[in-house]
Amino acid sequence: MLRMLTLMICLTALAGCATMDSRTPENYQRNSFYSGTQQDYHCFFDSALCALDLPLSVVGDTLMTPFDGWYYYQTPDDGGKGNSKVAD
After folding, report:
1. What is the pLDDT of residues 32-87, one digit of tens each?
2. Are the CB atoms for 28 and 83 separated by under 8 Å?
3. How many Cβ atoms sit within 10 Å of the Cβ of residue 36?
4. Model-level pTM?
């Protein structure tokens, strides 16, 4: 039992946290709430590691929802061209 628990924890750590990965500057989109959960859902059938990370991403994305809401309302709309800022 302890071996199985250790294995599950290690596999989850190897999977990485999709919540944090989806919030890196090159991956983050302005109107993407629950982006880590969406990322895990898209790779769910390709890898069992995504299935292990899915519950953690739901919790992480729920905790990040206030930041996502703030970011959504504070970032200017750039016409759907990604996350580029308008230069002054």
Report:
1. 788 888 888 888 888 777 787 888 888 888 888 898 888 888 877 665 555 554 44
2. yes
3. 26
4. 0.63
| Residue pointed to by tokens 């002054």 | 88
pLDDT value at position 81? 52
Q: What sections of 1-88 are H helices per DSSP?
A: 2-15, 18-21, 35-42, 48-74
4 Cα distance to chain centroid: 26
What the block records as the tokens of 36 is 């880590």
Distance CA 65, CA 83 (A): 18
What is the amino acid identity at position 53?
D
31-to-6, 18, 21, 38, 72 alpha-carbon distances in Å = 37, 17, 16, 13, 6
